[in-house]
Design goal:
Layout: H1 2-6, H2 11-23, H3 26-33, H4 37-51, E1 56-58, E2 63-65, H5 67-98, E3 100-106, H6 113-125, E4 130-136, H7 143-146, E5 152-155, E6 163-171, E7 173-178, E8 188-189, E9 199-201, H8 208-215, E10 227-230, H9 234-242, E11 248-251, H10 254-257, E12 263-268, E13 274-281, H11 288-306
Parallel strand pairs: 3-4, 3-5, 8-12, 9-10
Antiparallel strand pairs: 1-2, 5-13, 6-13, 7-11, 7-12
Length: 315
């Protein structure tokens, strides 16, 4: 048994190997990993000893993956990803035990009236619960839920099937244009008038169903959208629009939360509205802290729509 265990590579060694396989340079990989080159080289040699194979070919100037090293990559990635997932789930359970809730938000969602009311009600009902807000980018706001890096997120649907929602409010969407664009002076627009303007695009990790909705792709006549530069967050989106490289459609609240020089917001008469929502991972809906947030969101909606104040826990 001792011999078998001594040949098992550690997750740490696999992480180092994956970084080296991407950089193919000991110096660059070591700098990325915040370790010294000799330490990295030693760990790779130990990995090879444990596996009984050579994973890289070394020369005086370059390194390359061996055939065996290339064959190892998919399993190494899967092993590291599995351990990362175990750690994320354990962290989420620890937050559950301690009453700590990590609340994600995209854009200015957490600053808007309904999310603020939900958080205020949570603090009132659960004074010992700790709320920690984190701002998420376009690329990671749904992935953060799936990976359990956050417990709930204030966002704008649509979402993937593994996520459940409580809708908080509905509002129109508006066109966000460069102030220099000829259409920026229009009192209102139609989607047909916007047909020839490129729309900002999203990173590839963003679920396409989400950005198809926000880009209105395809348009009502079946035509496809022409995309411009990829943006990762609101500031890069604002900059791209202001320079005239592309446009986008945003919630009407953006007029108040994201006023920028060089940006104009214009009503679009045939653009379907958007909703703001609280989101959580479907498989975690019954956890105590997440139920507490869900119940607070439901109560805020009840108070806003019907004026009721009695607590009515959600199922």
């Amino acid at each position: 048994m001792g011999t078998s265990l001594s040949r098992e590579p550690s997750i740490h060694q696999l992480r180092l190997y994956l970084a080296l396989s991407e950089e193919l340079h000991f110096g660059h990989a070591a700098a990325r990993l915040f370790i010294t080159q000799p330490a990295l080289s030693q760990q790779i040699r130990e990995l090879e000893r444990r596996l009984g194979i050579r994973v890289i070919e070394r020369t005086s100037r370059t390194i390359a993956l061996t055939e065996e090293g290339r064959a190892l990559l998919p399993a190494a990635r899967a092993a590291v990803a599995a351990v990362d997932r175990v750690k994320r789930i354990a962290d989420a359970q620890q937050r559950q035990i301690s009453g700590r809730v990590i609340v994600g938000t995209i854009g200015a969602e957490a600053s808007m009236a309904h999310p603020r009311a939900v958080l205020a009600l949570l603090r009132d009902r659960h004074p010992h619960m700790t709320l920690h807000l984190v701002n998420l980018s376009f690329g990671d706001h749904m992935a953060a839920l799936a990976q359990q890096d956050v417990d709930v997120v204030f966002l704008r649907p649509p979402v993937t099937e593994d996520i459940e929602l409580h809708h908080l409010a509905t509002e129109p969407r508006v066109a966000c244009l460069s102030a220099d664009h000829p259409l920026a002076a229009s009192p209102r627009l139609t989607l047909a008038q916007c047909a020839d303007i490129p729309v900002v695009d999203m990173p590839e990790q963003v679920p396409r169903l989400w950005w198809d909705f926000w880009a209105v792709d395809p348009r009502p006549d079946g035509s496809r959208v022409r995309y411009g530069p990829v943006v990762t967050d609101m500031e890069s989106l604002m900059h791209t629009v202001a320079t005239g490289e592309a446009m986008c459609f945003l919630p009407a609240a953006a007029r108040d939360y994201f006023p920028r020089p060089g940006i104009t917001y214009v009503e679009v008469v045939d653009l379907p509205p958007s909703t703001s929502a609280l989101a959580w991972l479907r498989q975690r809906r019954s956890e105590l802290t997440i139920r507490a947030v869900r119940n607070a969101a439901r109560q805020v909606t009840i108070r806003a729509e019907a004026g009721q104040t009695d607590d009515q826990p959600s199922p």
